[in-house]
């Protein structure tokens, strides 16, 4: 049953530019929250999908090496083909790797990026499990499903509590970030158009 659901998941997203809520404007806004040096840094893009936001990372961090991972080989092939087309394959490398089995050395990335994917690991699990891959002054920038109201309808509340029990308010997500040993800096709510 799980393999069948995975098949339908990939069929549903086949041919789409973006595989999660977002936009170029929101990606650029999130990139602007990175306050570290942009010179010769190493970025890990977890759940890169077909790489649309990976290419924006490459554009905005012109001296970065980016390792972009996803567990669906056609997405990785598309990303690597795009990187080659734009002459970026020397610094944008797509790899077919599960976020649950990352073989990277500890303390090796300046920035971990996860746009529309950390929920797959579970927000608190992702925060905890990925932290070891960050350098001491590294950043984790991600998007997360959160309540933006304290009074969601019963129907919506029931749906999200069934589909993603870790859904919570932004205030509680910030507490989770701090409890995981990060220094929280900022956030924004994506517009409805995303």
Automatic annotation (TrEMBL):
Gene3D superfamilies: Vaccinia Virus protein VP39. GO terms for biological process: methylation. Pfam families: Methyltransf_31 (PF13847). InterPro entries: Methyltranfer_dom, SAM-dependent_MTases_sf. Keywords: Methyltransferase, Transferase. Pathway: Lipid metabolism; Phospholipid metabolism. Residues 38-164 form the Methyltransferase domain. GO terms for molecular function: methyltransferase activity. The keyword Cytoplasm does not apply. This is SAM-dependent methyltransferase. It comes from Caldisalinibacter kiritimatiensis. The lineage of its organism: Bacteria, Bacillati, Bacillota, Tissierellia, Tissierellales.
